[in-house]
Amino acid sequence: MITKKMAKSLNEQLNHEFYSAYLYLSMSAYCSKMDFNGAASWFLLQYHEEQQHATRFYNYLVEQDATISLQSIDKPEKKFGSLLETFQKSLAHEQMMTRKLNELGDKALKEKDHATYNLLQWFVNEQVEEEATVSEIISKIKLVQNDGYGLLMIDNELGKRTSATSGAMN
Ligand code: FEO
């Protein structure tokens, strides 16, 4: 059984994960509008991945017999700028999520709640991978600058992603 305070924090994080899903769904729609269908597909898988993250928190709260308290999900932006800016916004979002997860880890340690700390370590490791993947995509987009052919090649590569658990381009 976890403390009420920790359950409240994990419920909040569950909501942040759903917001992440919503944000990536909006980014997917935006990329479709720009005819970057590979990027749209990549963000759609990211949307599914974030739902899995939310479900992981949900399952943990259920296992711990904690109260589930679902909150409203904030409305995401609709427009994100260029393809580069869209991925830069995705990276900034993931960096913010990493900070939140680290803060949660600090709280778990303070409460000597090792079960929750273990759960959070999985997320912290996941964040390292997510940030690295998005950073790599940003580097590649920067490399081609605004060259249309280069952007189409990157979009094509992004479209090859098939799994909601690995966003790597290769
Ligand atoms: Fe679940 Fe991308 O943070």
Describe this structure in words.
This protein has 170 residues and is mainly alpha-helical. It has one domain (4-70, 79-158): Ferritin (Up-down Bundle). It is 75% helix and 0% strand. It has 5 helices and no strands. It has helices at 4-33, 37-63, 83-110, 114-144, 148-158. Helix 4 (114-144) runs antiparallel to helix 5 (148-158). The longest helix has 31 residues, at 114-144. The structure holds MU-OXO-diiron. The site of MU-OXO-diiron (FEO) has 7 residues, from helix 1, helix 2 and helix 3. Residues 17, 20, 50, 53, 94, 97, 130 line the site of MU-OXO-diiron (FEO).
CATH superfamily: Ferritin, core subunit, four-helix bundle
CATH level-1 class: Mainly Alpha
Report how far apart the termini are. Answer: 41 Å
Q: Report the β-strand fraction as a percent range.
A: under 5%
CATH structural fold name: Ferritin
In which range does the helix fraction lie?
over 70%
- Output the structural class: mainly alpha
**How would you name the oligomeric state of the polypeptide chains in this document?**
single chain
Mean pLDDT: 96
Please provide the count of β strands: 0
Number of domains as seen in the coordinates: 1
Report the biggest beta sheet as strand number plus sense, adding barrel if it closes: none
Low-confidence stretches: none
The set of bound ligands, ions and cofactors reads: MU-OXO-diiron
